[in-house]
């Protein structure tokens, strides 16, 4: 649960990052951890991309690094798609690197029970110590169609956008949100962005809605809300388990 509102600058690192690291990047473009890189390249993302995987020297022709700390340049945003037990260490490394925001696909946190909630709290605390904001965990991630930021593993990334791209959409359910996106697209609705918030360990539904209301590219804002949460409890999350467990 977020304890402080996100600033515009913090949100910019999610919606308009100059560089993206993909921790756990896979050589298989069909795997959740392989989809972001494939989509970023396909859509022509103009920023720098850094796949992170110690088992490969390059993926899809892009130089791969053993860890995010080995990246020679600054990293605005990290996409994390590795097993839950490895996420705390990844967040620590992101903090050391000065990463401003991270999207965590991984499931196995508050939605699975008390042990997962404890792990989620640990990850959130580690991020806050470094001033890093989190989207997720257990989420489909974020898509910004105005600048080809594909920080997601959702199948909707493969759909051709409809113009004008003016609708920003935020959802607590990745599955239902994706279905709404598809149906709206078929009816001619053009999206500027799509955000699946997952467990809302840090950034919440309201943070993204507030950002989109001030976004110049977004003229209409929509959302799918299952229920607001006022305290860090795992119970409201039991029926929302849609993140990836491993690369």
What would you say this structure looks like, in words?
- Helix 3 (87-97) runs parallel beside helix 4 (114-129).
- By secondary structure, the protein is of the alpha/beta class.
- The strands form three sheets. A five-stranded parallel sheet has the order 2-1-5-6-7, sandwiched between helices.
- The chain has helices at residues 8-15, 35-43, 87-97, 114-129, 174-186, 205-213; strands at residues 19-23, 48-52, 58-59, 62-63, 77-80, 101-104, 133-135, 141-144, 149-152, 167-171, 191-196, 220-224.
- It has a single domain, classed as 3-Layer(aba) Sandwich (Rossmann fold), CATH 3.40.50.720.
- The longest helix is centred in the middle third of the chain and has 16 residues, at 114-129.
- It is built from six helices and twelve strands.
Q: Which terms summarize this structure?
A:
247 residues, alpha/beta, Rossmann fold, five-stranded parallel sheet, 27% helix, globular, disordered C terminus
Number of strands: 12
CATH-defined fold name: Rossmann fold
Name the CATH architecture.
Answer: 3-Layer(aba) Sandwich
Q: CATH class, anyone?
A: Alpha Beta
Query: Could you say which overall geometry the principal axes of the C-alpha atoms support?
Result: globular
Helix content: 25-40%
Mean pLDDT: 92
List low-confidence stretches: 232-247
The CATH homologous superfamily name equals NAD(P)-binding Rossmann-like Domain
Helical stretch tally:
6
Secondary structure class reads alpha/beta
The number of domains is 1
Straight-line distance between termini = 26 Å
Q: Largest sheet, if any?
A: 5 strands, parallel
Helix-strand string:
HEHEEEEHEHEEEEHEHE
- Proportion of residues in β-strands: 15-25%
Give me the Rg, rounded. 16 Å
